[in-house]
Design a protein that fits this description.
5-stranded antiparallel β-sheet; alpha+beta; 27% helix; 359 residues; Chorismate synthase, AroC fold
Length: 359
Amino acid sequence: MFSTFGTLFRVTTFGESHGRAVGAVVDGCPPRLPLREEDIQPQLDRRRPGQSAMATERNEADRVTILSGIEDGLTLGTPIALHVANRDTRPQDYAAMQDIPRPSHADFTYRVKYGVQAASGGGRASARETVGRVAAGAVAEKLLRERWGIEIVAWVSAVGEVECSAVDPATVTRTAVDRFAVRCPEEQAARRMEREIGRVRAEQDSLGGVVSCVCRGVPAGLGEPVFGKAEALLGQAMLSLPAVKGFEIGSGFAGARMRGSAHNDRFVWKDGRLGTLTNRSGGVQGGITNGEPILFRVAFKPPATIGRPQQGCDYAGRPILLEAHGRHDPCVVPRAVPIVESMAALVLADLALIQSARG
């Protein structure tokens, strides 16, 4: 049950980093939704490794195969199985580390919890697990676009100390985001980010960063107080991602330094409906969407695997100098953009179906 996410639109992911395959099973997708592998592949292409000099050298095509739940290009309402083969695996890269808990990895905690761990690449704790999330999220996105006209766009807003603050959430597009390999749509900031990642990679180190996301066209009324609030589920979804250490929506932590008179979103009549003049709530009030764009940010820590030797100890407590092998991203945020979008889509598809069930 802990590999399953959602209430009505339910997704179960499967597979380990260096196993035979990864993927997901989507249960609860409504019938008669037009869906083909071509609808899913673009997001997997944006997530896949080996796509630029700033990503891991692992080269996976990540071609998705729909195994069930589709006939004549339409969903049947039955479980949709999505399969992606692992082909460029190198479990031998991790042989020397089987008896050593890697710093800031899940090796130690998985062994303590289960008494066993995947021998290579972090297993289920690896970012490779997110392939299934992205494939399932593409299905959710198709449903959101077709039925509710919802659009989701994420972008890199910070890499290390380099920040981008010139992006307009009302107009930013995926085309603009994908102009640069770092997936920041503002050219000057993107170039600085790319240089910073290149510098850190040359130093055999890593960098963290921030992904911002906007969900446009979300109708008012989605969210299930008190424990199924929209922002609570978005927070759960984002914090379940590998390397994520922070989530904030709307004004976030900056709002804690403001007065209520400055922070309040005043209601006005606009575009033929009741709306708010500002959007410091991030599109959610009382755990329910208010019809404004949902705006949130996700903080990713630096990748734990680095090329530099690190002091540590083995499971018996003997001091050791750890020299990691294998392939890794010097900064995960460029490839995290479609993952954030996919998890947002899974949350909103589930909440939209729950609201629709009320009739």
